[in-house]
Amino acid sequence: MFKNTISNLGRIRQVVEVLVRYGFEDVVTNTTLRRLVPQKRRLSWQHAERPVFETTRWERIRMVIEELGPTFIKLAQALSNRPDLLPEPLIDEFQKLQSDVPPFDVQVAKQIIEQELGRPISEVFTEFDDVPLGSASIGQVHRARLLTGEAVVIKVQRPDVQEKVRTDLNLLHELVRLTAGFLRNQGLSNPQDIVDAFERSMMKELDYTSEARSMEQFRKLYESYTTFYIPKPYREFSTAKILIIEFVSGCKISDKQQLLAWGLSPEKVAETGMDIYLTQIFEFGIFHADPHPGNVLVRPDGTLVLIDFGMVGKLTKQQKYAFAGVFIGMARQDARSMALNFRRLALTADIPDMRAFEADLTDLIEDFTMLDVKEMSMSDLADRLQIIIYDYKLQVPGAVFLILRALVILEGIGKVLHPSFNTFEFVRPYGARIIAEQYSTENILSEAQYTGTQLLALIQTLPTDIRQIMRKISRGDLRVRVELSGYQLLMRKADQLVSRTIIALLAVAFLLFSGLSLLGHYTADMPYYRGMPVITWWGFSITSFLLLVLLILGTRKRKE
């Protein structure tokens, strides 16, 4: 741990300077980070010639993230999908973050491609476009054509990006360790878990073979669909650092003029897109988690194409049923059903007051049932649900927020293409279908089979477990291990109390001894001072010293 701190010292000091520059001196002064800032290196708190303190705290947090670089920006973007962890104003600021960066040198890109392929580019491609189609913090994309004639795009990872990301991830772990107490006081109860989850996500994003597997999985699920297409990944040419995908032409789904020029119905395109997405969520439980217009293309024949599978969300069967149950309970104006399904959906749901929870859900239902169909908004509903989740500290799967965010994006696209587009009307039949699936004979038999298997396994192992316990009891080897958490402060206080009690008792004992010594009959050898035996003065001195120790301990405690 000490070694990690030393190796990251320079970068930590840079982070500290950025925090101080934007007025977060409380983060530094209230944690061990304060030791890393010499007085002479204090910087003026200015941003773009504007006093930092004229901005809000949330804006300053965004400024800090922007200056710290791509890894921190990606973490903030990931947290912008977790309103159960962060307050709404901070979510709004994080959603403004952009991670677009200039492209890197095409010659470097070619070198990386040749290193990964193990042969010259000319032996794989007949054409290669030096001008990238797009660029991001992890990599950039070039068009090319295989020797076999297929048009493709190549995603190339930036040079040394893995090392840079790993360095920043180590730094994030170190910063969380140094500021854990401060973050918990700000309401972030599990900062280390958040960084761990982000690390897993980033390492997965750095491995392009993971995206290729997701694409192949979607292609298999939708192989019989004629209105939906997923580009083919060329696994034989792809590695962890380069991904070669079939090139698909088309316009953005939001390009209404182009759709009309092709003779397509924008309303039909919007309905098809929503149906495909809801099928991903409620039938397959795996969905494309970033359906912004740039990632959803439309071909001239009306076929929808999804690209960029770097972000994919998943729901288990039980999570899928619970998530649908929330919407069904709302449609039926049943707050209790919504509350129960929220508890089923949450990973941990310690709700101290279920009546208050149901009352808030009732207010939500009443507000939305009073609206006209044209006034209902998925964005407003998502915001209200996220506020309730945050207020009651419900730890729900991250996929839930990805779904809500995606539904808001799709609703925005739908309203551009379809004047009377209403997300709730599309969700309603899927909710009914989920209920039918949940209580179908096949699913009930499957659940019964699972329960029976678990019960049978318990019955099979129970005699052996009981025999082992009885054997340990007979030999006197049975031990009970109890682990307590959060008791260190209590033990420290108890230790202080015991110590002070002992000192106080000793002081009382010496005081009593001094008083009783005045009644004693001593020989002529006993020295006296001001009419009292010396032994009495010694008793008073020790008593005074012990009382002084108690006074010092009490004063130090107040200062702490």
TrEMBL record:
InterPro entries named among the record's database cross-references: ABC1_dom, Kinase-like_dom_sf, Prot_kinase_dom, UbiB_kinase
GO molecular function: ATP binding; protein kinase activity
Keywords: Kinase, Membrane, Transferase, Transmembrane, Transmembrane helix
The organism's place on the tree of life at top rank: Bacteria
Keyword Signal set for record: no
NADP found in the keyword field: no
A Pfam entry, by short name: ABC1
Transmembrane segments: 501-523, 535-554
Domain Protein kinase: 127-498
Family membership: Belongs to the protein kinase superfamily. ADCK protein kinase family.
Protein name, per record: AarF/ABC1/UbiB kinase family protein
Organism: Hymenobacter jejuensis
